[in-house]
Design goal:
143 residues; alpha/beta; four-stranded parallel β-sheet
Amino acid sequence: MQKSYHAPNPGENRPWFLIDAKDQVLGRLAVVVANKLRAKDLPTYDPSVDAGAFVIVTNAAQVKLTGNREELKTYERYSGWRDGHKIFTASEMRASHPDRMIKEAVWGMLPKNNIARKMMTRLKVFAGAEHDHAAQKPVEIKL
């Protein structure tokens, strides 16, 4: 009888990847980031094991939206209070918090469970080209 393979949790030995979001389509970029966070690109993928990598996304303010999504796409937030429901267009979100555009797109592609919440802590998004994780020596991914 063969034993089932259970992928080990890499612990602190996770790889770091750097992705430049300049002129990349938001949805296609989010797919690549979500697959790296979940480790779906590895042959040892197991949905019950958090074996994903750290992902650094730079130039989030220059991510591209196709069609009329700059004016038509909306983001909603609700504080829980009366009159706490806020609706922003993509252009308003880009002006105030460009990193949230990528974070919300990636969050929509992850399962809604405790493992996904841990995965989101490994996503580092920066509006500009500079980032704080040069010491980790991330591998740059060309899209």
